[in-house]
Task: structure prediction
Amino acid sequence: MTCSRRRLLIAGGLAGAAATFLAVGARSREAAPRNDAARSKDAAKRIALKNLHTSERLDIEYFREGAYLPDALSAIEVLLRDFRTGERHSIDPSLMDYLVEVAHALGVDPAFTVISGYRSPATNAQLREKSTGVAQRSLHMQGRAIDVRVTQVDCAALAASAENLKRGGVGYYRGSDFVHLDTGEFRTWKG
Result:
């Protein structure tokens, strides 16, 4: 079988076009993760919280388009107030990010039951009198700590997941069945 010059040129052109198509496709796939990473940085973040003591619930988007949403942070502050005194304090937004990250690492929705959020200095002092497990300079008093549970997740697994992130403080209280998370330095303990 003989090939004409025209057939050779057409075959060569098709091969070149195919190679170009494959190279462009490969470059697009390589660039996609970078674009996804940039988008995930700005992705919306949502959290659901239920205050164990007041039964208040909140399911809210608190971050969108690269910024924390002030109204959402205010609503979180209300839910996490010191339920004993009614005092409110700003809550570190990265604490919410920490909770969301722990939930995603567990493969569950970020829906938490809150045992303790913000604590006033008076409440913290009162709790210290009753328990050796309450720090004198607790990050709860700065809006940087939270005690939580996640429905259908064992607290030991919740604590282990948080420990693996090495993001902040992780205290596992087996007897009381909750996990303390904070935005301080990475450290772990059992209560």
Notes: The longest helix spans residues 5-42. The CA atoms of residues 42 and 58 lie 22 Å apart. Confidence is low (pLDDT under 50) at residues 14-38.
